[in-house]
Amino acid sequence: MALCYQYQLPVLPLDRPVPKHVLSRRGAISFSSSSSLFGCANPRVLSQRRGAISYESSDQTALYIRMLGDVRVRSRAGFQPERRDSHPYVDFRLLHLSPEPGELASARKIRRLLSFQRYFRSAHLFCGVSPLNSLSFLDDNYNGQAMRMLEKDGNWNFDIFLFDRLTNGNSLVTLTFHLFKYHGLIEHFHLDSVKLRRFLVMVQEDYHRNNPYHNAVHAADVTQAMHCFLKETKIATSFSPWDVLLGLLAAMTHDMDHPGVNQPFLIKTNHYLASLYKNISVLENHHWRSAVCVLQESKLFSHLAVEEIYQMESQLGSLILATDITRQNEFLTQFRTHLDRSDLCLDEAGHRHFMLQSGCQHPPPLPQQKCYLCGVQSQENSWMKSHVIRSKKAKIALKCADISNPCRPWELSKQWSEKVTQEFFHQGDIERKHKLDISQLCDRHTETVANIQIGFITYVAKPLFVEWSRFSNTTLSQTMLGHLSLNNASWKGLLQEQSQGGDDTDFI
After folding, report:
1. Which contiguous run of DSSP H or E holds residue 321?
2. Rounded to an integer, what distance in angstroms lies between the CA atom of residue 65 and that of residue 186?
3. Cα–Cα distance, 40 to 74 (Å, whole number)
4. For 374-431, how does the pLDDT look when each residue is reduced to its tens digit (9 = 90+)?
5. Which residues are catalytic?
6. Please, is 459 exposed, middle or buried when counting C-beta atoms within 10 Å of its C-beta (0-12, 13-18, 19+)?
7. How far is residue 399 from each of residues 218, 315, 392, 462, 508, measured CA to CA in Å?
8. Which of 66, 81, 169, 260 is the most core-located residue (most Cβ within 10 A)?
9. Which residues contact residue 303 at a Cβ distance below 8 angstroms, ignoring those fewer than 6 apart?
10. How far apart are CA 502 and CA 504, in angstroms?
């Protein structure tokens, strides 16, 4: 990236030809958003455009697909341009309204300029030098408030919405970078601060901002919840820096490139991801692959041994795959059984097998063989240690962090409930428009926010957090259960008012 001075616009990679070494690596394919394939009369030379799709041809399980640069595809129908990494076989542009062309161009310029200003400012901060002509007193004031909030990063009442506003929409980058420093991960793993910042920005940008719920703010909220769990005594005393690193990485990447629709939608529209992963944990597999791709592209851990990087990627997958809500009852039943027996002891082969199944989610290999999917050796000190000990508590914590919204204070929980319901109803509207079967909880004519939340709390959240409080009976777990009960009562009260008033529109 070229340097930018006070009155000079930045020369971003988007405006430069793709370097030859980029096009030559991994069989990258370049295409132009102004190509005649997309209805433009003056296509440019493909090899000189800024966009490229790179793929890892050696991977036999799935393709790592990324767009290098902010390539936006236009159509003749006037839809809003697709963001990078959206999926070509389902027109997700239908999910959003089309802005005016002038507004779109100006908004893009503003985002690019602000992105460069943040990068330029952070680059100076990394060097310990105050940037010349600081943005403004207001920006410094906001940064100061954000830093004050980070002093209470382990507070369960942490307002992630306020923090996102104070950081100008960079809550995930700012919070995660702070937590890496808080837990000493930068020093312990000898991480390059600039590479770390670049990695965090890439992760944040891979979340769809137009999603009401599954966006970077949700990822930041889950990461903050994971941090609260990592500070619990029972976990803090048994987790190594490697475990903490995996927990934070999984929390921040667990919904990367989420399209804003659920798995049934991908299946019924014959999306290529559903075919690729055989209709099993489709989104979770895609989130995992997206996270691995960004890790490889950022080269954040390029200084580690190949075996360690491979182990990190496989364990990250086991954590992200555990967030599949369709396996909730299966996992909860096994977890409750072991807690009832008080026999969660990894010294017994049967319990190790149970944790292997729920942690790795791959069939256990024969002795001296590798797991057929993740490739980790089945010896005691490698496969057993990595898939059991390091996955056991982190996986439980991530599942709790992912669905912890009903356990937050009412002011925060209510906002999350409205956002997830908005995303559900948006999908239902698309399904109705295209005469598809409307997915469960996605019909705005038959569902309400209160009904959805009462059912979710009763059948999903409460059973899990009751068992979590048995596993970690602390002040935090009791606080979460208290908020859960109060929020459930509040939703029931609102539902009763709705039934008496009969005004569904205002309530929704």
Report:
1. helix 306-321
2. 28
3. 9
4. 444 444 444 344 444 445 566 778 999 999 999 999 999 999 999 999 999 999 999 9
5. 214
6. exposed
7. 14, 15, 11, 13, 28
8. 66
9. 190
10. 6
- The span from the CA of 258 to the CA of 314, in Å, is 20
What is the spatial distance between Cα 286 and Cα 254, in angstroms, rounded to a whole number? 10
Report DSSP state, residue 18.
P
Alpha-carbon distances of 465 from 6, 388, 487, rounded to whole Å:
52, 22, 14
Q: Which of 372, 304, 383 is nearest to 60 (CA)?
A: 372
Based on its alpha-carbon atoms, the radius of gyration of the chain, rounded to whole angstroms, reads 23
Residues of the chain with pLDDT under 50: 1-16, 18, 22-100, 112, 116, 119-120, 122-126, 128-138, 346-390, 504-508
At 155, the amino acid letter reads N
Q: Taking the model in full, what pTM does it have?
A: 0.70
- Crossing angle between the packed helical segments 216-230 and 241-253, to the nearest 10 degrees: 160
| Amino acid of residue 130 | S
Q: What contacts 460, CB < 8 A, 6 or more positions away?
A: 325, 328, 403
Please give the Cα distance from 308 to 318 (Å, whole number): 15
How far is CA 340 from each of CA 214, 395, 464, 501, rounded to the nearest angstrom?
A: 35, 19, 14, 45
Helix (H) or strand (E) run with residue 67 in it: strand 66-67
Q: Which two tokens stand for residue 239?
A: 């987790």
Residues in the chain: 508
- CA–CA gap between residue 274 and residue 61 (Å, rounded): 13
β-bridge mates for residue 53, sequence order: 29, 67
Closest C-alpha among 507, 508, 416 to residue 461: 416
Q: Which single residue is written with the structure tokens 């503003």?
A: 110
